[in-house]
Specification:
about 375 residues; six-stranded antiparallel beta barrel; Elongation Factor Tu (Ef-tu), domain 3; six-stranded mixed sheet
Length: about 375
């Protein structure tokens, strides 16, 4: 986006601006975000081979506190939130009464009765409606934090070099509230790349000081700022879904047919129908499961050739049975991969489909039908991610 007049800067925007050689600014919840700094392929390989830096400050954050916080979250979320311990991060989704996903996000338990929810879209009204009758306080604290995601096999080394003690002991999906040269930090071993990575949350006033510490580290010669394009490639390899791309939140759908249940999105593991009590959407999800499951499923695909099947329709014989939602040629997997929604009955591993791919070549539009096979996700899952 060339015209960024109406978008707000983050605390890191001016620090990132000299790196943004392509002047590729995008909108993220009304704030400036970078699409590509110079070369999205170079940025992608920084995620997989070095250490990447991504400004996640525009992410929406809610602080939930109060006596009934744990009970409220267990009513809101489809998974059993009573199992979330202090110092733990949990990935979860929440549904409407029809059992359709409103959105997904990460929940950080900072202390007893103290949680932080990180989410893409604004959910304050939904949270407040669900909290009726509970003794909780829900506060939008998006402006109280800024954040950076450091992702890649060298991310831990970078944090060690700037003096962040104990980082090697921080387990996957765990949190640490610490301090670095007088800067209070919340460090989460989480990320959206499927690689080793950390997310750093801090007060906006400390943004420049942290920035200078990161770039003063010896390993900073391997540190590369990345934009949303490179991040999108990595999250597809990791099999992660993106709201408004792979699905639309139930509250923002124009038509009821666009809404998706957790089972349709492959979020079965985020739904605990055995946990006691009621949660929003439970009855609808129980009915869906009793009826034999969802009418459609989100799957991973291996596609013949090297032309990404972006927005391609999928066929079984001559029947249209699905559509690709995300796709690209994976350099590290050496595979043409995709995420797609298909009709139930065509989602079993090994199912052979055909993808209708349209590409532009020398000012001509070409159509090709390529074989597509349902495969497991994630496509890329390095052991160092959890080590």
């Amino acid at each position: 986006m060339k015209n960024d007049v109406n978008l707000l800067p983050t605390p890191f925007t001016e620090l990132l601006r000299p790196h943004n050689l392509a002047h590729s600014w995008e909108r993220w919840e009304g704030k400036l975000s970078v699409g590509v700094y110079d070369n999205d392929v170079r940025e992608y390989f920084a995620i997989r081979n070095a250490v990447s830096l991504y400004d996640t400050s525009p992410i929406t954050q809610y602080r939930i506190t109060g006596r009934d916080t744990a009970r409220f979250l267990d009513r809101l979320m489809a998974r059993d939130m009573t199992k979330c311990r202090v110092g733990q991060a949990v990935y979860a989704c929440w549904c409407d009464d029809a059992g359709k996903v409103v959105e997904d996000g990460t929940v950080f338990r900072l202390g007893d009765g103290d949680y932080l929810i990180n989410v893409q879209e604004h959910n304050l009204a939904w949270f407040e409606d669900t909290a009726y009758g509970f003794e909780v306080s829900i506060e939008d604290v998006t402006e109280d934090y800024c954040s950076l995601a450091l992702q890649g096999p060298l991310s831990r080394r970078l944090l060690e070099e700037i003096g962040l003690s104990g980082i090697a002991d921080l387990k996957f999906f765990r949190l640490a509230q610490t301090e670095l040269e007088g800067i209070p930090l919340l460090v989460a071993r989480t990320g959206f790349t499927g690689d080793l990575g950390y997310e750093l949350y801090l007060a906006p006033r400390d943004a420049e000081r942290l920035w200078n510490l990161l770039w003063a580290a010896p390993i900073a010669v391997r540190l590369v700022p990345i934009g949303s394009h490179a991040l999108n490639y990595a999250r597809i390899e990791a099999g992660f879904l993106q709201v408004n791309t792979d699905f639309i939140g139930a509250e923002h759908c124009l038509r009821p047919s666009q809404r998706r249940s957790p089972f349709e999105l492959g979020f079965d593991w985020l739904v605990d129908l055995k946990k006691p009590g009621y949660f929003v959407g439970r009855r609808a999800l129980e009915r869906e499961k009793a009826a034999g499951g969802p009418r459609r499923r989100l799957v991973g695909l291996d596609i013949e050739g090297n032309k990404p099947a972006v927005d391609s329709f999928l066929y079984a014989g001559n029947k249209e049975v699905g559509r690709v939602t995300s796709a690209f040629w994976s350099p590290i997997c050496k595979r043409n991969i995709a995420l797609a929604t298909v009709e139930a009955g065509h989602d079993a591993l090994g199912t052979e489909l055909r993808a209708d791919i349209w590409t532009t070549k020398e000012l001509k539009i070409e159509r090709s039908m390529r074989s597509a096979r349902v495969v497991p996700r994630p496509f890329y899952d390095p052991p160092h991610k959890k080590s």
